[in-house]
Amino acid sequence: MRRAVTRFRVLELGVLLVLLGAAAYEAAVALEWIPVGTDPGENARFEGIVMASADLAILAGIVISLVLAPGIDGLSRRRCFRQQRRR
After folding, report:
1. Global pTM?
2. Are 25 and 18 in contact (CB under 8 A)?
3. 84: three-class secondary structure by DSSP
4. Which residue, 21, 47, 19, is CA-closest to 34?
5. For position 66, what pLDDT does the model report?
6. pLDDT the model gives residue 67
7. What share of the chain is helix, strand, coil (3-state, %, to 5)?
8. Structural domain total, the chain
9. I need a surface site. Which of 17, 39, 54, 57 has the fewest CB within 10 A?
């Protein structure tokens, strides 16, 4: 179980870095450091790639949080549920 949690921690760090990169990209577009075309519908360079990677990172973050949430303190899902029922 310990090794699996470590793998998820690495994935969490990756998700965080992708989201920070996407936020920095959007800030650069907003500050006009990355030019946007003058014609309607023209986007900044690599906008599709950045948005797709950010969307995948959000989905990965949701999956990781759902997998880790019940057993974050080392309890199995079943033991965690039993302890919640007792309270």
Report:
1. 0.68
2. no
3. helix
4. 47
5. 81
6. 78
7. 70, 0, 30
8. 1
9. 39
The answer to whether residues 49 and 57 touch, using CB atoms and an 8 Å cutoff, is no
Using CA atoms, how far residue 81 sits from 9, 50, 65, 70, in Å, is 23, 39, 17, 8
Judge contact between 64 and 58, C-beta under 8 A. no
Phi, psi at 83, each rounded to 5°: -65, -35
Tell me which H or E stretch contains 34: none
- Note whether 16 and 23 are within 8 A (CB): no
Q: Residue 69 is part of which domain span? A: 2-86
Q: Distance between CA atoms of 34 and 42, rounded to whole angstroms?
A: 13
Per-residue model confidence as pLDDT tens digits over 15-41: 999 999 999 999 999 999 999 888 888
